[in-house]
Amino acid sequence: MSAMGDMKRRGVVALGITALVTPLTVALGAAPAQAASCSTQAGPYQKQVEKFLGRPVDGKQSAADCAATKAFQTKHGITPNIGYAGPVTWGVMDLMLKQKAVGKNPNKDGKCPVNKGRIACVNLTLQLSWIQDGKTLVRGPVPVRTGRNGYETRTGLKKIYWRHIDHVSSIYNVPMPYSQFFDGGQAFHSVGVSMWNPPGSHGCVNMTKTEAKAYWSLLKNGDDVYVYGRKPGT
């Protein structure tokens, strides 16, 4: 073979090797892209989120800020969980602060009736529930997860009319342990997600298993339930 032919042959081989190597290089380049999934941008609520998480409050996104924010988002099912201090993340944190401020006086505004004896109260605005007997606090207040936009938990005075400890939803085919129904298909029941997991339930008042069990032991058919306020975002 001539020298010129040999050079052409080697050129073709080299092109072939390049074609094989290029996809591999692109594939290897995916790792840094995944690592960059933690946002480097400061969000509109950067300072508020930093303060809530006990981070230095400078309004600037750092790797540590992002990691702490992302861990919070992951814990509470906030998506996308990329560590960005956006309105949904701050909305959850702000709600937590308002819930904490209530302390042990959830009916300070006097909106849940105190003339009904034992009654379960649900404040949609603060996403809190408690059981009281007259003016005496029996249980709570505890964070709850109520209906999302389009599936709002209906307000008003109601009564528990049916209880089913091992209920499974016939509509959504999901377990609803410790169900206590008070308005059509709406009930108190436990769930396995965070109480601050957005956007909310399909109308039921979700609780942790511990609280749902406590409500089960404290309430009975015929007991009053009072739901009032308006859930943020509905």
Describe the structure.
The active site is at 189 (proton donor/acceptor), 204 (nucleophile). GO terms for molecular function: peptidoglycan L,D-transpeptidase activity; transferase activity. Keywords: Cell shape, Cell wall biogenesis/degradation, Peptidoglycan synthesis, Signal, Transferase. The protein has 234 residues and is of the alpha+beta class. The chain folds into two domains: 32-102, no CATH class; 108-228, L,D-transpeptidase catalytic domain-like (Beta Barrel), CATH 2.40.440.10. The protein has helices spanning 3-28, 30-35, 46-52, 63-75, 87-102, 209-218, and strands at residues 118-123, 128-133, 136-143, 156-159, 162-168, 175-183, 186-190, 205-207, 224-228. The strands form two sheets. A five-stranded mixed sheet has the order 3-2-1-9-4, covered by helices on one side. It has a four-stranded mixed sheet with strand order 5-6-7-8, covered by helices on one side. A hairpin with a 6-residue loop joins strand 5 (162-168) and strand 6 (175-183). The radius of gyration is 27 Å and the shape is globular. The chain starts with a helix and ends in a 6-residue tail after the last strand. Mean pLDDT is 87; it is low at 1-36.
